[in-house]
């Protein structure tokens, strides 16, 4: 069974640009969650999607948005990038109330 | 404010030593998971505990869920260099759907 796939693995952007990250969940998993991981803040919850609907949202500004497609694949978008957005962005898929299966993340560097 | 606090934040020990990592909260969780993350990879699930007072063993790792389901501990016996990594606890609360709350993390280094 293929795991969670995130693309791209690495990304370098400049301030003010926007970026889109992609996540393909494990087959059959309808829940996809996104997390931001930084050395100072640890793993911070961004949002969770289930059957194309956002069910939960963390405490992040509106510049962070996401969506989920009918095949459960998900994208996350960050607009007007700031230096502080540099982080590892992790996607995780799961069945409802089951443990998370993480991808290896996208390392975003904003210069 | 972090819902789950882990201690210690950093731990560096010699191979063969024992250690305990703590995950504490003032909130009740319906279940709690422990994950390990290695550099360049996403966290990988180690165990899920559901019942208050539950103890689970995974080879040299022992996990315990507090009686009140507010805290958990991870004990490693005779640590090995392969145990090196970032250990994360994560909990689900009742009535919050599928939202996981992650702990602050414990970075463990086992020196050969």
Give a brief rundown of this model:
The complex is a heterodimer of chains A (111) and B (112). By secondary structure, chain A is mainly β.
What does this structure look like?
The complex is a heterodimer of chains A (111) and B (112). Chain A has strands at 5-7, 10-13, 19-24, 31-38, 42-50, 53-57, 64-68, 74-78, 87-94, 101-102, 106-110. By secondary structure, chain A is mainly beta. In chain A, the strands form 2 sheets. In chain A, strands 2, 4, 5, 6, 9, 10 and 11 form a 7-stranded mixed beta sheet that branches. In chain A, strands 1-3-8-7 form a 4-stranded antiparallel beta sheet, with no helix packed on it. Chain A starts with a strand and ends with a strand. Chain B is mainly β. Chain B contains no helices and 11 strands. In chain B, strands 2, 4, 5, 9, 10 and 11 form a 6-stranded mixed beta sheet that branches. A 5-stranded antiparallel beta sheet of chain B has the order 1-3-8-7-6, with no helix packed on it. In chain B, strand 9 and strand 10 form a beta hairpin. Chain B starts with a strand and ends with a strand. The model of chain B has no long low-confidence stretch (mean pLDDT 93). The interface between A and B is medium-sized, with 24 and 25 residues.
Furnish the topology, listing elements before pairings.
The complex is a heterodimer of chains A (111) and B (112).
Chain A: E1 5-7, E2 10-13, E3 19-24, E4 31-38, E5 42-50, E6 53-57, E7 64-68, E8 74-78, E9 87-94, E10 101-102, E11 106-110
Parallel strand pairs in A: 2-11
Antiparallel strand pairs in A: 1-3, 3-8, 4-5, 4-9, 5-6, 7-8, 9-10, 9-11
Chain B: E1 5-7, E2 10-14, E3 19-24, E4 31-37, E5 44-49, E6 55-58, E7 61-65, E8 71-76, E9 85-92, E10 100-102, E11 106-111
Parallel strand pairs in B: 2-11
Antiparallel strand pairs in B: 1-3, 3-8, 4-5, 4-9, 6-7, 7-8, 9-10, 9-11
């Amino acid at each position: 069974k293929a795991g969670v796939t995130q693309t791209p693995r690495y990304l370098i952007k400049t301030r003010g640009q926007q970026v889109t990250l992609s996540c393909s969940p494990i087959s059959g998993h309808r829940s996809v969650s996104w997390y931001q991981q930084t050395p100072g803040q640890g793993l911070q919850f961004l949002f969770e999607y289930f059957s194309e609907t956002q069910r939960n949202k963390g405490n992040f500004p509106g510049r962070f948005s996401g969506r989920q497609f009918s095949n459960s694949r998900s994208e996350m978008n960050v607009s007007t990038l700031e230096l502080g957005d540099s982080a590892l962005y992790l996607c995780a898929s799961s069945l409802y109330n089951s443990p998370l299966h993480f991808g290896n993340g996208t390392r975003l560097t904003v210069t | 404010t972090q819902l789950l606090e882990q201690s210690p934040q950093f731990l560096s020990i010699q191979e063969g030593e024992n250690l305990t990592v703590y995950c504490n909260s003032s909130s009740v969780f319906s279940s709690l998971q422990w994950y390990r993350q290695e550099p360049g990879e996403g966290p990988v699930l180690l165990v899920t505990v559901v019942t208050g007072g539950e103890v689970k063993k995974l080879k040299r790792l022992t996990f315990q869920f507090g009686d009140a389901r507010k805290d958990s501990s991870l004990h490693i016996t005779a640590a090995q260099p392969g145990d090196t990594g970032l250990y994360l606890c994560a909990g689900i609360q009742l009535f919050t759907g599928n939202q996981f709350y992650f702990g602050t993390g414990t970075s463990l280094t086992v020196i050969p």
